[in-house]
Amino acid sequence: MVVKFDLIAATCENMGIGKNKDLPWRLKSEMAFFTRMTSETSDQNKKNVVLMGRKTWDSIPAKFKPLAGRINFILSRSKLDVQNYKDCYSFNSLQEVIDKLENEKFKDVYENVWVIGGSYIYEETMKSKYFHRLYLTRIMKHFECDTFFPKMNDNLREIRDSRVPEDVQEENGIKFVYHIYENPDFNK
Ligand SMILES: NC(=O)c1ccc[n+]([C@@H]2O[C@H](COP(=O)([O-])OP(=O)(O)OC[C@H]3O[C@@H](n4cnc5c(N)ncnc54)[C@H](OP(=O)(O)O)[C@@H]3O)[C@@H](O)[C@H]2O)c1
């Protein structure tokens, strides 16, 4: 099995993803979509990995930590104390993450790897040869943000996925659309 990164993010019109260490919006149905996509596996004996930066980890409320039903991977330059959390690992570099994902024993345990932010982790994984797809929710509204999604490569191809609704979604008067972009260079 080749390591494969699927990114999942939500951006507003100005490509913002965060504000004051939190999401700039509250969209329950979009959050439910995130949970479903990152949790679903075809093999009931396996879980998905969710890979995130330390600040994204910090932004998760204590009662939702670690993200349930998924194997939580956190990138930090410090050694994080995550031993008390089930299915939770910390890594000092993306290379360490890849080494773990390529470990023969660990390969039996996980199915997909979802990169869930923030900025740096999206940027590094999109630059890597393991970048497969970006599941991007485009929120059709401007929000003030202090953290932004990195520049996307021009060669990405928009595709469809039967698990993802194609029509415009709406919650609390805020419209948004789920897009999927595929890296044509993946696995070449
Ligand atoms: N809209 C969305 O889809 C979405 C998704 C995720 C997050 N967010 C939002 O985005 C914000 C957080 O994102 P962020 O971009 O500020 O931070 P982040 O990427 O979550 O975390 C940054 C941290 O990751 C670690 N890191 C970065 N580069 C590293 C490297 N090369 N090696 C090892 N560790 C490294 C460092 O941790 P240390 O400082 O511990 O060394 C760094 O401070 C929050 O507002 C959050 O709510 C939004």
From TrEMBL:
Coiled coil: none
Cellular component annotations (GO), alphabetically ordered: mitochondrion
GO biological process entries: dihydrofolate metabolic process; folic acid metabolic process; one-carbon metabolic process; tetrahydrofolate biosynthetic process
Positions of the DHFR domain: 4-183
Record EC number: 1.5.1.3
Reactions it catalyzes: (6S)-5,6,7,8-tetrahydrofolate + NADP(+) = 7,8-dihydrofolate + NADPH + H(+)
GO molecular function, one term: dihydrofolate reductase activity
Pathway assigned to this chain's UniProt record: Cofactor biosynthesis; tetrahydrofolate biosynthesis; 5,6,7,8-tetrahydrofolate from 7,8-dihydrofolate: step 1/1
Enzyme type, top EC level: oxidoreductase
Keywords, sorted A to Z: NADP, One-carbon metabolism, Oxidoreductase
InterPro entries: DHFR, DHFR-like_dom_sf, DHFR_CS, DHFR_dom
Highest taxon of source: Eukaryota
Pfam families, sorted: DHFR_1
UniProt function note: Key enzyme in folate metabolism. Catalyzes an essential reaction for de novo glycine and purine synthesis, and for DNA precursor synthesis.
Protein family (similarity comment): Belongs to the dihydrofolate reductase family.
This protein's name: dihydrofolate reductase
Organism from which the protein derives: Asbolus verrucosus (Desert ironclad beetle)
